[in-house]
Design a protein that fits this description.
alpha+beta, two-stranded antiparallel sheet, single chain, 65 residues
């Protein structure tokens, strides 16, 4: 098993995650105003609290350059 730093991965993929989260919010709550930076910050913090600093992931999910 490989290990990843979850918060580091989330931070690295912030642009992609934020974009996907914004599209999801608009689809499910089209008439509700929101600030994506605030929603994303909450999302990131909630995920980080649920995970250990290092999380095990199957080797097949990790490719090394």
């Amino acid at each position: 098993m490989a290990k990843i730093k979850v918060e580091e991965v989330i931070d690295h993929l912030e642009r992609v995650f934020k974009s996907g989260l914004e599209e999801t919010m608009k689809e499910y709550f089209p008439d509700k105003p929101f600030e994506i930076k605030d929603v994303y910050r909450t999302f990131r913090n909630k995920v980080a609290k649920k995970c250990s600093y290092w999380e095990n992931v199957p080797d097949r999910f990790v490719e090394r350059d």
